[in-house]
Design goal:
Layout: H1 8-17, H2 24-38, H3 54-57, E1 59-65, E2 72-77, E3 80-86, H4 90-113, H5 119-122, H6 127-141, H7 144-151, H8 158-167, H9 172-182, E4 187-195, E5 198-207, E6 218-220, H10 225-232, E7 238-246, E8 251-260, E9 265-274
Parallel strand pairs: 1-3
Antiparallel strand pairs: 2-3, 4-5, 4-9, 5-6, 7-8, 8-9
Helix pairs in contact: 1-4, 2-6, 4-6, 8-9
Length: about 280
Amino acid sequence: MISPDRNLRVQAFVQHFGGRYRAPDVIMRHLVRAELRRAHLAQTPEPIDPSQLHSRFRISEVRITREFAFAGILTEEAHAYIIHIKAASRGRMRFTHFHELAHVYFIEATDAVLPHLPRAERNRISQEEERLCDIAASEFLLPHKVFFAAARDATTSWSGLRRLAEQFDASLDATLHRLSDGFVGPLLVTRWSRVEHGYRHETLVATGALQHLRQKPQTIATAPPYIAAAFATHDDCEFPTHVFVDGAFRTAVVAMLRQQRGATSAVLTLTRLVE
């Protein structure tokens, strides 16, 4: 049943592809994982080339441009689609490439469920659709089983996280977001940077038993001792530090602190609780 309170393309997507699922997020993840299995790409340890999926999504061409205000856009031409991608880092462009592929799902669903919908409505893309296409891009770029198997050994240091991103030819932002999305263990990654009036603290990932430690970005005047120690260290080093004892746990958290970009910023990775 089509409701007037929700974007028509998303409703058509749920109705056409949903089957026994009704939550759009779950439907999208199921679709992408099934797509990768059909293409024999679900278990590959190598980065997936988006062009391997072009025939399924009827992509005739990919154009790289510097002129767009958006990261990417999908256009239709002669019963096929052209993906336009704004020039950026390789990892960012790969994410955009997969994101634009996912918009084809919504076009297919709208054509099937609402074939007589006026073009203006047919082409109206909502924020919810964009969010769902981001989910699809993450699933394509960092396939669930192989990514989280690799992540178990990569989340004990900042350098490990960077290697994890490089393994899948993804940006560090996309990799951290994927960890936030599905890492089952306790993991907290925070970034500290020098700013004009002190230090800026931002939570990048908070999962498992450490989810409640997620905080909004904030600036404080004085850095904690373990952060100050990192700023004072110019060697590319890692060292374990007991950083705090939370009343709910009665345990210390083992931290791996890595200096980044000289003495300007640092990342704190909390990976497990020690009794």
